[in-house]
Fold this sequence. Notes:
6 helices, single chain
Amino acid sequence: MAKNLEICILLDFYGEMLTEKQRNLMDLYYNDDLSLGEIAEIEEITRQGVRDSIKRGELFLLELEEKLHLLQNFRRNQETFEEIARQAQELYTFVAHYGGAKQKACCEQIMELANTRLREDRET
């Protein structure tokens, strides 16, 4: 069972929807990078029990994303804010040469808003 970055990200988005036990097992596996054997020893269950629980959790997370699209929407929003920041920077360059102070300040504000949102999203 190869560790999958996508599942790790989905765990961040939907982890609270799992049972506490399942969330804990998946957290140990994906975030703490423990092996199935190490987790089995810690939790005092079989390695197969750990594997089955993680597999069920993965399927549940994938089904949630298929229905709710939170990760897909998050990524699309990030791409949009990145494009807004790029376009505002390009406009700012033009305005710096040909525009006035008001247009320049407006571009600066747009860039700051987009970049603030991107920073906040990366921190969460």
